Amino acid sequence: MRRVDLAEASVAVRYRTLLTLWIGMMMSIVIWFVLTRWLEVRNPENPQLGLLLICFGFVPMSSSFLVKQVLVGKAIDRQDPRLLQPAYVVAWALCEIAALLGLLARFAASSPHYYAAFVIADSGMLLHFPQRRHVLAALGQEF
Question: Do 138 and 81 meet the contact criterion of CB atoms below 8 Å apart?
Fold first, then answer.
């Protein structure tokens, strides 16, 4: 097999792995949301706590962009594509924290607006869709 073919196969495998992980993380947020719709809430409504939890969802979601930028930059500078996967996973996990705060707003505060935290989490996850150009740059190839 030619060297170019091996490099293309490596890019395809690494990118496919990132896509699979991204889909899994998106599905976990969907499962959390389904859980909120399926289970009954018995706590009294606390609108202030619910709003506070939803607003706190912006903190990890917005910090995920800085974390990913730094970690992807390290992967590209070191020409090490193995560092891309942790960069993306950390960013996705920070976005998932917003969904977990929405889950908490639903069950601890009985907030009727808990779904906003899930919107925050999903928007962060969509903005962190895996980029093939990052894989190519980490392998030292042109994109």
Answer: yes
